[in-house]
Amino acid sequence: QVQLVESGGGLVQPGGSLRLSCAASRSIFSINVIGWYRQAPGKQREFVATMSKDGSISYVDSVNGRFTISRDNAKNTVYLAMNSLTPEDTAVYYCNAVVELGGGYGYYWGQGTQVTVSS
Q1: Residue 102 C-beta-side C-alpha neighbours within 13 Å
Q2: Do 10 and 116 contact (CB within 8 A), yes or no?
Q3: Rounded CA gap, 110 and 97, in Å?
Q4: Percentage of residues in the chain with pLDDT exceeding 70?
């Protein structure tokens, strides 16, 4: 099992930047895939960015070149640096972890952090 705690959300003007943090309750190396999803009002939750245990990274096309996912192994923390934010990036951002369990995988979510991009 793993607990995830997000922080760093807030209100930012279009074109601005924010950095989200996701602190995990266990070593990042024990997590198969960790990353970020978001859910805007009235929309389904969507994939944003993930990082695998081996360091491979994926982004949704709409954030590629603007968002950067990274990790601090010593702090068991994953970050999402978001630049050139637009109102379309407004959403609740959730941290997600996939952990290999005996015979399968466990999927864990944080409580979410609100990001609002508005002038």
Answers
A1: 0
A2: yes
A3: 9
A4: 100
Contact 21, 8 (CB under 8 A): yes
Q: Could you tell me how many helices (H) and strands (E) the chain has, helices first?
A: 0, 11
**Cα-based distances in Å from 111 to 61, 67, 71, 80:** 25, 21, 19, 16
> From the CA atom positions of the chain, what is the Rg in Å?
14
C-alpha count within 13 angstroms, C-beta hemisphere, residue 105: 11
Closest CA to 118 of 6, 22, 10: 10
Give the tens place of pLDDT for each residue, 37-72. Answer: 999 999 999 999 999 999 899 999 999 999 999 999
Q: What confidence tens digit (pLDDT) does each residue in 66-90 have?
A: 999 999 999 999 999 999 999 999 9
